[in-house]
Amino acid sequence: MEKVNLAAKFAHFKDHWSPKIIGELNGQHVKLVKLQGEFVWHKHDEEDELFLVCKGTLKMELRDKTILIEENEFLIVPKGIEHRPVADEEVWVMLFEPATTLNTGDAESGFTKRELDRI
Amino acid sequence: MEKVNLAAKFAHFKDHWSPKIIGELNGQHVKLVKLQGEFVWHKHDEEDELFLVCKGTLKMELRDKTILIEENEFLIVPKGIEHRPVADEEVWVMLFEPATTLNTGDAESGFTKRELDRI
Predict the structure, then answer these.
(1) What CATH number has the domain bearing residue B34?
(2) pLDDT in tens, B1-50
(3) 3-state secondary structure B4-30
(4) Per the CB 3.0–4.6 Å rule, which of A27, A55, A111, B7 could disulfide with A92?
(5) Owning domain of residue A44
(6) ipTM of the assembly?
(7) CB of A56 within 8 A of CB of A90?
(8) B110 interfacial to chain A (CB closer than 8 Å)
(9) What gap in Å lies between CA B65 and CA B83, rounded to an integer?
(10) Does a structural domain hold residue B112?
(11) How many angstroms away from the CA of A10 is the closest CA of chain B?
(12) Beta bridge partners of B98
């Protein structure tokens, strides 16, 4: 059992849209991801997803509105809700979600990552 | 669907050892709690528990060692592992754990909180 330092883990990688697993509990994963640019519209049929912004401002586009998530704020996107994360400048995010969650949900694309690194 | 600002939520309460629910997803709760002093030794038979320190330094006593968790660090305490959180000075913590989790686990005491506020 060892503690996890978020800054140290974020320093481990530079690539965008590629979540890294940094913890696992109760069938859920804790992941870090760096975002820049526009992701794909997608939804997760079975998983709610929590986005906690650690650095920068994340623009979460929903079909009916856009929510700006700033540092030390989080948003829970319930299952079934279409969303598109957009980062005009680089954003660092911590994710909490079931271990079964695929990053692109129902929208398989070049962004899809099936094998995630543990860092 | 609304974003949650951690600082604003922490400003909502002052009491210690009384977790507040600030989010729910996939059967898990996101909670905030302020700690000061020594808690009781306990374990959770069924739930892993994540402690993310938002302010201060949390001393997590385990039977074989003590782990100091600083700001922006987290520790996952697996189910079945006895632990005792100690805060020499006030510590602010975000918890991520199953909705079924009782704060004192198997050690019912004056610290036990069965009904948690949602803030």
Answers:
(1) 2.60.120.10
(2) 999 999 999 999 999 999 999 999 999 999 999 999 999 999 999 999 99
(3) EEHHHHHCCCCCECCCEEEEEECCEEE
(4) A55
(5) 6-98
(6) 0.95
(7) yes
(8) no
(9) 10
(10) no
(11) 12
(12) B28
The two structure tokens encoding residue A98: 């079931």
Other C-beta atoms closer than 10 Å to the C-beta of B5 total 16
Decide if B26 contacts A47 (C-beta within 8 A).
yes
3-state secondary structure (DSSP) of residue A107:
coil
The total domain count for chain B is 1
Chain A touched by B99 (CB under 8 Å)? no
How do strand A28-38 and strand A58-62 relate by DSSP bridges?
unpaired
- For residue range A83-108, list pLDDT tens digits in order: 999 999 999 999 999 999 999 999 99
Distance CA B92, CA B55 (A): 5
Whether B109 contacts B11, CB under 8 Å? no
Of A3, A48, A81, the CB nearest to B26: A48
Do the chains contact at B62 and A1, CB–CB below 8 Å? Answer: yes
Which residue is listed with tokens 């305490």?
B77
Residue A77's CB is within 10 A of a number of other CB atoms, namely 23
Query: Does the residue A112 lie in any domain?
Result: no
Q: In the structure encoding, which two tokens stand for residue A13, read together? A: 């990688």
Other CB atoms closer than 10 Å to residue B15's CB: what's the count? Answer: 10
Distance, C-alpha A30 to centroid of its chain: 10
Residue A67 lies in a domain: yes
- A20 three-state secondary structure: strand
Q: Is A6 helix (H, G, I), strand (E, B) or coil?
A: helix
**What does DSSP assign to residue A116?**
P
